[in-house]
Write a structure and sequence with these properties.
With 186 residues, this protein is of the alpha/beta class. It folds into two domains: 55 residues, no CATH class; 103 residues, Rhodanese-like domain (Oxidized Rhodanese, domain 1, 3-Layer(aba) Sandwich). Helices cover 36% and strands 19% of the residues. The strands form three sheets. The chain has a five-stranded parallel beta sheet with strand order 6-10-9-7-8. Strand 1 and strand 2 form a beta hairpin. The chain is elongated, with a radius of gyration of 28 Å. About 5% of the residues have low confidence.
C-alpha cells in the first residue's frame, strides 16, 4: 500500500513505473523506469531511435513543419490581407472596392461577384492590367476559386503600385457557400 506524504513517489501501473507528483494535484507523469537499467527515462529519449529507424518519415515531418512556419510568416507579414465575406461586402458597398477575379474565363462566366473584373494571374504577373490601373487608390479584392491562388496575384498588384489589396477568404466557393449573389455570363 502506497502512502503519499507530499513527496514524489513511484507507482507501478500496467507494468511501468510512473512518477506521482503530489504538487500537480495527483497527476501521474509519463516518466518511467527503463526495464534494463534502474534509471529514469524521459519520453524525449525515444526520438533519436525513431529518427534513425524512420529517416524518410522524419524528413517529411520536418519539411511539413518548415512549410507551415514559412507559410504562416508569409501570411502574417504580407501586405495583402485576407478578409472575410462580410468585410468584402462592406468594402464593396461602403468604399467602392474593385473585385478582381483571377479565375479562367470559363469559370468566371459560370458565376462571379457582380461588377468584378476578370484579370488572369498571368496578366497581373506580366503587368497587363488594362482598365484596372485607374483603380490604384481604391481597395482591391482579389478572388480565386477557393482562396489559394489569389495571394500571389495580390502580391503582383502591390508590386504594380496598388495601395490596398485584399484576398477573399475561401474564394468564390466560400462566397457561393453562404448563398451570396453571383452574376452569370459576361
Amino acid at each position: 500500500m502506497l502512502v503519499f506524504r507530499g513527496m514524489p513517489q513511484f507507482v507501478a501501473l500496467g507494468g511501468a513505473y510512473w512518477l506521482y507528483l503530489p504538487q500537480r494535484a495527483g497527476i501521474l507523469s509519463s516518466l518511467e523506469f527503463s526495464p534494463n537499467r534502474r534509471e529514469l527515462l524521459h519520453p524525449m529519449q525515444d526520438i533519436m531511435p525513431f529518427i534513425s529507424a524512420h529517416p524518410v518519415l522524419s524528413l517529411a515531418w520536418v519539411a511539413l513543419l518548415i512549410a507551415v512556419i514559412v507559410t504562416t510568416f508569409k501570411t502574417r507579414f504580407s501586405k495583402v490581407k485576407e478578409i472575410s465575406r462580410g468585410e468584402a461586402t462592406r468594402l464593396i458597398n461602403k468604399e467602392d472596392a474593385v473585385v478582381v477575379d483571377v479565375r479562367a474565363r470559363d469559370e468566371f462566366r459560370k458565376g462571379h461577384i457582380s461588377t468584378s473584373l476578370n484579370v488572369l494571374s498571368t496578366d497581373i504577373k506580366n503587368n497587363n492590367l488594362g482598365e484596372l490601373t485607374k483603380h490604384k487608390a481604391q481597395p482591391v479584392i482579389v478572388v480565386c476559386a477557393n482562396g489559394t491562388s489569389s495571394r500571389s496575384a495580390g502580391e503582383g498588384l502591390i508590386g504594380a503600385g496598388f495601395e490596398r489589396v485584399y484576398t477573399l477568404k475561401d474564394g468564390i466557393s466560400g462566397w457561393s457557400g453562404e448563398n451570396l449573389p453571383l452574376a452569370r455570363g459576361k
